[in-house]
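Quarterly update from the structural biology core.
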Amino acid sequence: MHELLCRGARVRVKDCKVEVLTDPAVVSCPYVRAAFKIDRIDREAVKRIVEFKIREYGHFCPHRSLKSDRVVPFGSSEMISSVMGKLLDCAVVVCDGAGSVIAWNPELVQGIGAAMTGLLRTTPIPEVIDRIREMGGDVLGEPRIDQVAAVRKAVEMGFERIAVTVIGPHADTIGELRDLEREEGVKLAIFSTCNTLIPEGYLEYLEMADVVCASASRLVVERIGPRALMQLGIHIPVFILTRLGKEIALEYLKEMRSIVVSRARMPFIMEDKLPEMREEERAHLNDS
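Predicted structure, tokenized:
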């Protein structure tokens, strides 16, 4: 059994069957429109998106693909994998069927993260774990989602420059990760992802990250955006908050065929380009 967030909807997958448990928080999104040809997002649309990932990539199944040519512009796995061996030694990411993964093969990082978002809990799948180990990765002794424990294990394995992804519902662990970084004398590049449902009380943790994806959160755009040293993208802004984050972003941009650079007051947004949330969901987050 696996649970995840998709466009703010809580989804359960059991035996590769999809059940959408709650309404999505997002009603329209430029990325969803471009990638899935879906204009209005409802429970059926969410189910179609998750079923597509199961069908095309084997998510939540023993044959789960760990290689991917799929590229999401300014995606966390794309940025991390592009600088491994240069600015980073390994990455701690989350994979369905394996939980927290310590990966030192950039191809594995991209294969895991290219289409995986918002995983809340997962059940170990031995076939997936075995292939992760064959490809240049490892999991916790008791496979589970625990990014702090996985970073600690990465340090014990001898890695010193470690990327780690943290989704919005688990953003409170970012403080623990910074404490661990100081205790162990290592360098962490923290990527804050899947922030659509981030409550206002968690924004203080996002401020400690190096890279923050706004997802569909107006709170992140308004509160984190002005702190950014750099912004990637307009539809779903990615905010770079630290010098390390900026170094990673600039190294990643070297591989892009064409880019436009302009000075601007942060955040730089175009209202008609941002994802649209349900009004009741937005009001709830503002009050939380």
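The chain is about 35% helix and 20% strand.
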